[in-house]
Design goal:
binds pyridoxal-5'-phosphate; 4-stranded parallel sheet; Rossmann fold
Amino acid sequence: MKLGLIEKYRSRLPVTPATPIVTLGEGGTPLIPADKLAAIAGLPKGSLFLKIEGANPTGSFKDRGMTLAISKALEDKARGVLCASTGNTAASAAAYAARAGLPCVVFLPKGNVAAGKLAQSLMYGARIVEVRGNFDEALATALAAAKSSGYTVVNSSNPWRIEGQKTGAFEIIEQLGAPPAFQFMPVGNAGNITAYWRGYRESGKTRPRMMGFQAAGAAPLVLGRAVLKPKTIATAIRIGNPVSREGALAARDESGGLIDKVTDAEIIAAYRMLARLEGVFCEPSSAAGVAGLLKLSRARFPLKGRIVCILTGHGLKDPETPLKFKYKRKTVTAGSRVTL
Ligand SMILES: *Cc1c(COP(=O)(O)O)cnc(C)c1O
């Protein structure tokens, strides 16, 4: 039987014997080499790795934080849980709340949630509130609703989310035998980069340089100011005013890393390359870190040592984006001779 990450890392997480553990067997995701991608980035064979977070129970890394946030909500006798979400937090909250027997309300930016994520929230039985507005506006609406409701907010402002997510760093260190030299990842609300940095800091002296990438149309941390109307095809990082801004900037500065931006065209190129060259289908947002790696390698940025890219969510979350591209395909009559 696969243990969830709370049991695996119990001594390093804020749980007590009284905490009821709500788990779907999250964590323990694959770390796989990506040698073809390494060659394209001018890196030596065996130096580039992908952390497949789409292999979590609801298909994204959000499950790492949610197992702890929902366990704690249950321990604290919450009436229910709520969140605002571009889709993956909602899917994860809805699943873990269902398992815990807690009511769940999700606030979604209407028209900007990938189909698979919406399907998940519906199936897990969450109450859905579609907000006419972007994610940041949905979050403000959710926080106002949460006030004096007895519902626990499970956005990444919830401290247990970050605690659970730091286990990604523990796993990578175990899988490589040591921390990598660089970690590339997408940055939206910036909870994940904050969490990984905490995990690496708690694990020892050598730490990766943290390389975060925002979408060019939603890059508040690069611009140094909030973006009122964030725009990008990568809906999971379509965020104009990141909640964990300070954590992300600390991760960047303390690690000697950077936070930069990549265009939608660069994200899509990396997204397609991952699928075709490595057999890894992630969602568009997840490809932002790889797009950043390719951008830096083109600019001859000095990269040495082992590099990990976090692929945050599964490609099937978003079945619509791939259908926008042109493919060669043909239709034949059944039984006709097809030459290959
Ligand atoms: C939530 C999410 C992100 C962004 O993570 P933050 O912690 O908000 O920076 C990136 N990719 C996917 C697939 C996500 O679900």
